[in-house]
Design a protein that fits this description.
Blueprint (H helix, E strand, L loop, with lengths): L13 H22 L6 H24 L5 H21 L5 H26 L2
Length: 124
């Protein structure tokens, strides 16, 4: 029995530069929000590095597997990533957990709707 071979996907430089850029910007912003105008501490630097690496890793993983997902699940994945990331940033400003969760749900829902619209109108 012969199996059909699937051609290897070539990921260009955008496949790693976009997640890396998002991770750096997210990490700097997380550290900036946590700093709240005071002096920079080691804990804030560690928070920024860990948050940036985590966001970059999840973005890179999602970028690698997004073509295997149906558009509904892909939109839900992007909405979840956006909601979690922005809810966490909002929680760094010493907001309550309920307010942070609400903001994450609002932004995640908006990202889900926008990404589903984009995927639905552009797929063949």
């Amino acid at each position: 029995m012969a199996y059909a071979t699937v051609p290897a996907r070539h990921h260009g430089s955008l496949g790693w530069t976009l997640p890396a850029t998002l991770g750096v910007v997210y990490g700097f912003y997380a550290a900036f929000v946590q700093r709240a105008g005071g002096a920079v501490t080691g804990g804030q630097v560690v928070l920024g590095v860990v948050a940036g690496v985590a966001v970059a890793a999840v973005c890179m993983l999602l970028g690698r597997v997004q073509h295997a997902l149906p558009r509904e699940l892909r939109a839900a994945a992007y909405g979840t990533l956006t909601g979690c990331a922005l809810g966490f940033l909002y929680s760094l400003s010493h907001a309550s957990i309920l307010k942070s969760t609400g903001m994450g749900i609002v932004f995640g829902g908006a990202a889900l709707a926008a990404s589903f619209f984009i995927f639905y109108t552009r797929e063949t």
